Amino acid sequence: MANSKRLLAALTGVIAATVGLPARADWSLVNMPVGVTELSQDIHGLHMLILWVCVAIAVFTFGAMIYALVKFRKSKGAIADTSLLHSTKLEIAWTIVPVFILIGMAIPSVETLIKIEDTTGSEMTIKATGYQWFWQYDYLDSGVSFYSRLAESSNETRQLGSGKDPRSVEHYLLDVDHPLVIPTGTKVRLLLTANDVIHSWWVPDFGMKRDAIPGFVNEMWIKVDEDKPGTYRGQCAELCGRDHGFMPIVVIAKPKAEFEAWLAEQQAAAQAAPTEAPTEAAAATAATNTGAAEAVTLAKAE
Amino acid sequence: MAHHEHTADAAHHDEKPHGITRWLTTTNHKDIGTMYLLFSLAMFLIGGLFAMVIRAELFQPGLQFVDPGFFNQMTTMHALLMVFGAVMPATVGLANWMIPMQIGAPDMALPRMNLFSFWLLFFAFMLLLSTLFLPGGAPASGWTLYPPLVLQTGNAFPVAVFAIHLMGASSIMGAINVIVTIMNMRAPGMTLLKMPLFSWSWLITAYLLILVMPVLAGGVTMLLTDHFFATSFFNPAGGGDPVLFQHVFWFFGHPEVYIMILPAFGIVSEILQTFSRKPIFGYEAMVYAIASIAFLSFIVWAHHMFTVGMPLAGQMFFTLSTMLIAIPTGVKVFNWTATMWRGSLTFEPPMLFAIAFLFLFTIGGFSGLMLAIAPADFQYQDTYFVVAHFHYVLVPGAVFAIMAAVYYWLPKWTGHMYDMKLAKFHFWMSTIFVNVLFFPQHFLGLAGMPRRIPDYATQFADWNMVSSIGGFGFGLSQLLFVYIIFKTVHSGEKATAAVWDQPTGLEWTVPSPAPYHTFDTAPEVK
Hints:
The structure holds 2 protein chains of 2 kinds. Chain A is built from 7 helices and 10 strands. Chain A starts with a helix and ends with a helix. In chain A, about 40% of the residues are buried. Helix content of chain A is about 40%, strand content about 20%. By secondary structure, chain A is α+β, with helices and mostly antiparallel strands. Chain A has a 5-stranded mixed β-sheet with strand order 3-2-1-5-8. In chain A, helix 2 runs antiparallel to helix 3. The longest helix of chain A is centred in the first third of the chain and has 34 residues, at about 40-70. By secondary structure, chain B is mainly α. Chain B has helices at about 1-15, 20-25, 30-55, 70-105, 110-130, 155-185, 195-230, 240-275, 285-295, 310-325, 325-340, 350-370, 375-380, 385-415, 420-445, 460-490. In chain B, helix 4 runs parallel beside helix 6 and helix 7 runs parallel beside helix 9 (about 285-295). The radius of gyration of chain B is 23 Å and the shape is globular. Chains A and B meet through helix 1, helix 2, helix 3, strand 7 and strand 9 of A and helix 4, helix 8, helix 9, helix 10 and helix 11 of B.
């Protein structure tokens, strides 16, 4: 592992040096994050397994090719052996061996897949609805509901010709006004749907993305490790129109007690000012997008 | 033998109208092939220009040049132009030129339909390009045209659908022509299993085209009726399902990627044997491998849509069936390596491109295998990792093979040798820059950058800049390619009939440039 990391780091360094950019030591810039859930760690493990299998096969095949390119040059006096036309043994070997390698990869893949698709035993359910171009979160068990949009600092900077430097904005394009808050150590079931076009909900640190499709409800689950509270960021991953690049997802994972306190606070606030009507905003969005109005009613009826 | 007779009455047979009428009315497979190739080159340059707009905007974080809506039009049009306008017509052009010559036929079997299919394609693209100037702009939903998003397209929508219908009709006609030609017009003694691999790969490609182009046509027609005639195929409010379109699209779309790559397999096989001075290793296995890849391409489509929320059994099936493709693909890569093994290699430009194909296409194959694994795909899906994967398969894969084919057969087409030094320079520039362009995109995708976005979080800035520099370098290098081709048409050392050192194949038995009608009497194949 350490060796392989060094190899990749060296490769990175070489490429960066070639184009005159500073070599970066930050691993998160070139590889999949390990993430903070059991699923994301399984998926990362699977990714590294396939990656190294591919690297091993590449060393073998590219090695053979390079050997042939060096050794069998006409300029070095190589004479073609035109009798080498086929070899049944060899051909059977290179058909069968890959079968076993593939089986070796398929077994852990299927195991992980079964785990991912098992949403039973969840302790709370949150519905995420994609709109052009923001998200709505409904805590189905407690009635808390809010919208989550690109933070104003990013939004000002990202306008064409804003003259503002994205590097001066903290978490540029990955920051929202109202982040989703979830408890750690809790199996949270996420229901996904959309109100206009297809969106996709993705936080790399949770290992998963799943499409939010109008008229349908998809599900996935997240269980952030007890010892890894924090803020995790992602983006919509399915092209959803003009501002597809500007509807980030921010999730704050809090320890259970803190989460309960936050939830109570939200409930109290909602009772104090109950007029943030979801239907109003939904209707406004629908009006700007012809053809989506019917979809709204259906998603509501769901 | 055969070619002595040609030279005797070549003057009579080469009669053709001059100037523009020749090109408008020709039914000659070589002229039509040339038109297809030039059309493809033009689309490659325009599609490339769109890619330059994309890479310029992505050079730095923040929006510098274009509006996000226009950016989406660029990604959509870039893909449509490269897939349907550059790669497919290039392989059709090569098929037109080379299949009759390789199988010993005087022309394509259906010459008028051949011309018709070219002009259909031409007008399809004039229509598609015109959408850039319509109110609402060009389609901006990605080349995958997913509803409901695609239904938000402006006036361009029906125009684009009509253009896709025309392209489909054109491809189907081209495919029928290839099948009829190969089935009926092979020279005596040219049994199917003696046929050169390029012709073989095209025969199988033609069947794929006939099977899937109508599916795409059906899909876009349903979009059209959803939009204008109040049907609800894909509209959930009327009981439809947006994901149904994705199934229909990818049932076309996955075979489509093999439609682009199988002819490339054929080209690379021909070139590797010529410059290894050794017949292809495992000829029959190569044919069967192409056929099995073609078959498998019909049962893997939903691996493009693992995140739509399929049933567990569906995800397992599509993961496993997709992994199976690695086996025949592996057979091909191993056989190509074995073809070079104990050969006598020289490194002319076509061989250089074929070798680069071998390495870089294989890298695309590895990332393809990674993407096949559904749980890992939940991370990779819709990120730059996917962009890197399919560009590795299509650019140093399909496009390099097409360039290899041009450098391989250009002397046969024009009768002139091209500037070898310049062509090698073009090769090195292309190969270096294509890697600078696409390799860092693997990193971007894994680190979490979604595809199809005009602006990105600042941690992605460095690799995007590297990628853009590669993009500009690769784009500029292709101007060399254009220069080399046009220079060779007009001037250059005279090419011999064989052109290369004892290549095999009937096309090398006729003079260079190949006579207007290649074989008046069918050559005997032993």
